[in-house]
Structure formats: C-alpha cells, structure tokens
Fold these 3 entries.
Entry 1:
Amino acid sequence: MPRELTLRDALNEAMSEEMRLDDRVFLMGEEVAEYNGAYKVSKGMLEEFGPRRVIDTPIAELGFAGIGVGAAMNGLKPIIEFMTWNFAVLAFDQIVNNAAKTLTQSAGEFKCPIVFRGPSGAAGQLAQQHSQTFESWMANVPGLKVISCVDPADAKGLLKAAIRDEDPVCVMESELLYGLKGMVPDGDYVVPIGKAAIRKEGTDVTLVSFNKMVEVCKQAAVELEKEGISAEVIDLRTIRPLDYQTLITSLKKTNRMVVVDESWPFAGVSSEIAYAMQRHAFDYLDAPVLRVNSADTSLGYAPTFVEEYLPNPAKVIKAVKEVMYIKR
C-alpha cells in the first residue's frame, strides 16, 4: 500500500533500503551521522548502519568528494551529501575532472558509481552565495547524470536508481520542500532515470519545469483553468539525460510551450529546451517557446529582492498569455 511520506523521509528510505541490499553503499558528508543530517534526511541511519557506513566529515568538500571518487573507483558505492550544492563548488574538480571522466579516461576499465546529492536553488533569505541553482552546471558535463525532483515518490525511486547506476549521478533536491508530503509506493520502488512525468494533462499550452518550480507551474495551471486555459504540466525529473520525446509529444498536442527554470536565463536548461523544440518540432509551434527564469543577477538578501528575483505563478501566467496572443 502507498504511504504518505515527506520528501526527506522518502530520500532516507531510499538510502536505507539500498544500504540494506548492498553493503558497498555508504553515506558520507557534513553532519550526516551524529546530527542526523543538516535537514534530517539521514535521521536514524547512524544507529542502524554504524560509523563505518554513515560518516561525518570535516568542512572540506573537495576532500571528502575525492575520497568518495576513489572509493567508487575501487568497487564501493558512495553517497556524498553536500549540505548545499553551493558548497559543492569547492568539489567541482573531483566531480567534473575525476568522477565524470573516469570511464573515458580509463578506456572503460574503471567505473565511478557515485551519487552526489543535496539541495539546490534558492531557499529564502540566504543571499548570493547560498541561493544558486546548479542543474545546468552539472548537466553541461558529459559523463554526469543529473536528477532534480521534489515529488516524494520520484525522489525515492530516482535516488534508488541513482545508487544502482554505474555512472556518477548528481541529485538535486530542495531545501524548502523537504517537508513536502506525497504518496510513496511500498516495496522496491525504482523510477527509471531519463523519463519525464506529466503532472497535469492539458490542451492549450505546455508548461515545462523541474524541482520546486513544478509547484509554481501547478499553481499557475490552476489559475489558468479559471480563465478557460488548459495547461499541461511536465515535470522533467531528469535533466541529463533529458526526455525530449515527452516534450515533443506534448508540444504536438498544445502547439505552445513555456519553460520555467529557477536558474539564470543565459545558457541554462530552459535555453536547451527552447532550442530543441524549434529544432525538432518547429512545424508544430504556433508561437515561439518562452522562458521564465530567475533574474539575471545574484540574489540579494532582502525579501523584496527574493520575490522579484524568482519565477512565480503570475510570471508564468503572463508568459502563457503571451504565447496564446491574449492581450492583457
């Protein structure tokens, strides 16, 4: 029977189940053990698995990411938790230059089955150095898979798939939505990497997003419905590999698309989707693909800056009306 779980509990369940199934899997990061995780995602895991498999680290992302990469190359399956992907910038050398390239640099002799996970994106008034969105950064690197979702069932199923994967996988979560609840199936529930989900069927316009911006799209779709506009909402779930076919199929039905992406507008996930749609589905477009992104600047601390900076339902609705040529 499906049970209602929070996002943090779904992630905890995924890691715990995989650690019970495979003694090569271990968790390492700042405060994951004694403190039960900065966001309590690893609550109770130290007690069950002990300090050899749930390991607290110093504040040294480059160091413990490197230990994880070396462990993965030698047959283990590390889960490296970053307190936030903002701190993972310090570990990019290990993620980008080592984990992502191990398979090709070794001519296929070595694999690197490692998961890097933690929250990405803005989380309230945390200012410039703690509010960045990293999906497009990681997805730009060949050799890395990138997951970004907030639905608890997807979070469990995709994290389990990531842990079992033989390639390095970056899992992006949301600090603001660790308490979000959803129904999660019992048993060995695994979601395949690389497949988008249709959260709401629609006929007039396709809204595409990922992570917590999916919730923004769902809110916008409810308001649009009141005005007689039927919006289809697609949750990418996986950024790389990207499920282009689901997007194209939806666009063939609605003929209009708005992509909502929390990252900056230049060279982001929304840019790739807009290009791909005009390249592969141009004949089905009744209007240019529009993007709703965060402002092209660093995020300030003041709450008025946060509100102005981020995508919201009103901005999405405005873009939808533009692609439908509805005058305001």
Entry 2:
Amino acid sequence: MRAWALGAALLCMWMPAAAESTQVFQVDFHNPQITPARWTLTLYPDGKGHFHSERGTASAQDPPTMETPDVDRDVTLSERFAGRVFRDVRDHTVVRGECESHMKVAFQGWKKLSYTGPDGSWSCEFNYSRNKEVQDLGESLMAVAGTILEGVRLEMLLQHDRLGLDKEMDYITEASADGRLTQLCAIRGILERLADDDGVLDRVRKRARILLAKQDK
C-alpha cells in the first residue's frame, strides 16, 4: 500500500449518521479466477458505505477450506480515509487520461473507479495503471475489501471453528502492519466480540485488543 493511504490506515472510528451526500465514489472489482470473483464498495464522504461481494464460479480450493459467503452489508470507514479519496477525486489527481496502462503485467483483476457529484462524474477501468495516484488508490481499496472479507471470515470461525481464529488473527496482525489490510474500523464489531469472549484462546483476545488499540491512534 502506498504512502498516501498509510496515514489513514488505522485511524478509524465510528462516525455519527450524516445527511445523505450528493457525492458518491464506487469501486467495482472483477477477477473470475479467484473468490470472491466480484465485489463492489460504495463510499460517501463521511466514511459510510456499502460492500457487496459474489463468490463467482472459480473452482473450490484443494484441500477444501472454509470459504467466505456472499457479503451484502453496510460498512463504516474512517472519515479521514474517505476524505482523502474524495479530495483526490475532486482535485482530479486520479483522473489524468486513460487509467489502463496496456502493459504486459500479471492480471490483478479489473478495477472500475466511478465518481458522481455536483461537480460532474467520471469512471475509468484498469488492471494496472501507470498513473501512480490511480494505482495507489486501487491498491488501498483492495486492502479495504480484504479487511471486510477478513471480518466476515472471523465471524464464521467464531461460530464454527474457534481454534482456527488463532491463525487468522495472526494473518490479520501481519497484513495490517504491512498494508495488505487497512481500515480495521470496518471490522471493529467482530474484533470487540473476540476481545471480550472468554471462550476463545487468550492469544486471540490479546491480538484483538491490540488491533482495536492501534486503530484509534
């Protein structure tokens, strides 16, 4: 994850309800080779948003693993993170011609960025972009989606495989430190449940408390 997103990565808090915004930013992701094959994140300037994912038709993993189901839920990101996204969009720092580089690079999945507001609208789609701002924004939003999906996985493990939480929390701790995951406030609810649950391993509770503390710094 690039520098512009690092400052907002863990500065998360639940924001009060705000009036409906006329500005909307959305990223649509599609890669039929992985699961979920599709997801959409809609975001408003106050950090409120909605996430929707669909598994797709990719073959199940071998050996079988617990797959994340289709997701359709409201989410809350930090207002600072959302503000940076909309500020860059309004300043057109992420709109400088065509998004797609057409370079021969590994397929990372199609990302379609879209914005609608009183100052106009635009969209662009890319696998990999030479535009640093576009590429950085895409990577940051991918990290947000990864966090949301990890939160769903934690909920499943808490219900069906509590011992599996230890390994998953280890991954989340590492991935949130190196930028593969960001905006832990999006999964604050499940982290709080784990931090207070005497029925899970002590290591899991401790990691949940550490992650909750980091997001408020």
Entry 3:
Amino acid sequence: MVLGALVAIIRLASVRFRGGIQMLSGPAWALTSVLFFAYWLPEMLSAFDAIDRTRALRESLVDLRYLAFLWLVAAAVAHDQARRITFTGLGIIVGVWTLDALIQAAFGTSPLFFAIDQIKYMISDRGMCSVQDLVADRLSGILGPCNLKLGLVLASLSPFALYATTRRFGLLGWSAAAVAIGVVVILAGSRASWITFALVLLFSGWRELGWKKLLAVFATGVVVVTLLIQLSPQVQQRIDRTMQATAVDQEGVDVALSGRARIWGAALCMVQAHPINGVGVRGFREAFPACDPQRGQVAEWGAGPALHAHQIMLEILSETGAIGLLLWLAGAAMAWRAWRYAGNAARERARPAMLSLVVTVFPLNTHLAFYSTFWGGLTLLLAALYAGSLLARGDE
C-alpha cells in the first residue's frame, strides 16, 4: 500500500495535480476522498485522549497513506478497458487461490504457499511460519497456516470471480465457481466467511438465476455441507460449537461464539466509559483487562486480552466512540447516495465491487479488525474500486 501510495503521488505530480481529472472524474475524486475521511477522521479524533496515545497517533499518521492509495485504485477502474482488466484480474486471482486451496484439501499442501515458503527459506533461512504454526485446524491456502484468513478473503472477493465466470460461461460458469469457492470457504473454517459467502450467493444468485433456481443452489449447498461435515472433523467441530448457541446459559452461548460474547461485553463497557471518541484505535487490548466481564477466568481464545471487538459496530463505538460511528454512517450514506442517483450502466459496471464492499461490512456478522492494516486495507481497496467504477469518466 505504501508503494501504491507513492505511485499515485508520482502520477499526480506528473500531471501537475490540477490535471488530475485525467485520472478520475470529479465525482470519483470526491467520493473516494469522502470515504477515506469517514475512515480516517475517527481514528485521528480518537487519538487525543486514547489509552495508548502514542500508538493511536502513530496509526492515524501512518494511515494517511491510504488516501493516495484510494485515488490510485479508483483510477485503475476509471475507464472501460482498465476496469475490465482489473475486475477480471481479481476474478482470476480468486480462481487461482481457490484451485490452490482445493489442491491443499486433496493432497495436504498448498503449492503456492510452498513456493513462497521456499523462496523465504532461500532468502533468510527461515520459513514464513514458526514451527508451532505449521499445524492448522483449517484450510489455509496461499496465506499459510500462520495467517488463517483465506475463507474471509475469498468470500469478500468472490463477487469478482462469480461475475467474471458468468460473463464468460453463463449460468454454468456461475454455478461451477460458486461450488468451488464454497467448498474452500467451508473448509477454510471461519463461520463469518460462511455468512459472507451466503450473502454473496443470495444477492448475485437472485439476479443471475431467479429465486427458484437459487433455492436449488442453496439446497445443493446443504448437501455439500453435509458431505463436508462427514469428511472434515474440523467442519463438524465448528457446527457442533455453533449448535451450543441454543444453550440457555450464557456460558454455552459464549462457547458457541468462541468467546465473543465476553469480548462484546467488554466492548460495551468501553463504550460506556468512553462514549464520545472511544479508547483509541487499536487500544482495545489495553482497555480490555479493566472491562473484562469474566476477569480471572480462562478465555475461550486462550491466554492474553482480546485484541479487538470482532464486530464492526462495536469496534467503531469502543475505539472511536459516537463521533466515529457518525462519521462512518456519513460515509455509508454518501456511498448509498452515489449508487441511488447513478444510472443503470454505472450500477452494472460497479456491481461486483459494490457487492464485495457490502458483504464485507455487513453489520450482522463477526469481523476482523477494520483498523488493522490487513482488513482495513482490503476494505478501503473495495471502497475505492466501488467509487472508481461507479463514477467512472463518462459512460464508455
């Protein structure tokens, strides 16, 4: 992202900035900037009296790089040919990562991660992961056993693959891509990714298949999940854990949610203690011990404090307060307003990015930390792809 920001700055300088309209339309400049400030201003305002003020200030200053990065990403989809290349390229990446993960499911090794790991060994005599991380309880794919986020990433980016295969191969292509990605998402283990991918299938399938065929798709999905439960003890374990949510006691619910009920209780405590601008971005771990509702008990996730709220609304409220939530909602309102007043052609070309962004920030789910480099960067990438494609230069 730093390199992308530098490229954007150099590109802007080459056109003397005032000629920057050549890169983006005026509305696209405005919307990408608004979405950036809806993300960045809350963390900057939370830093003034944050629990870890030094870290919060450093995070807000470092994240200024995102603004130029967003401009660059939006410019990459600002006209028809560039948009086709970018969206198709993202679809190909999803396809390659899916195939690689299926190979890992069949033979136990991800070819892509193995290649990356060997290159790392050649450079530094160390692999990508430590020895204790090499045994994972779920499919890890190209990201490796020490970075178990494959399911979430594929689920969020899957609309690009589904739309690309539909455009190329019709309904058969959509169905094949949905099955392949769905198998990997299930085996990759994260229940949040299951919800995300189900939303993708619902919204893209409703449009492409109609409700009758879509019901058949979900019925097929139930069969596939049933088979995977029989073949994968890890999937069975997650289903069993989820079923504990039907328990009448709070402990059963917390176990089903992998300790998140405890984390959410702590987040609500932080909101009550710091309602205006929160405890500061990335300050959740520092504030957790004082707000832990089960202080002294071993947590479901093991030793140490929770690192973030695991839910977008609670993360925003606990770390950036009511000010942060209002700014995020303002950004969401501007994104929705742009969609509402866009023409049919603009909506159609932006649909994959729109769906990816919506399912990634869907509030009735659990989430990674949006103010982390990994997930925050992915979310802003999708926001820039949405703004740049919806408000492209003209209707090519």
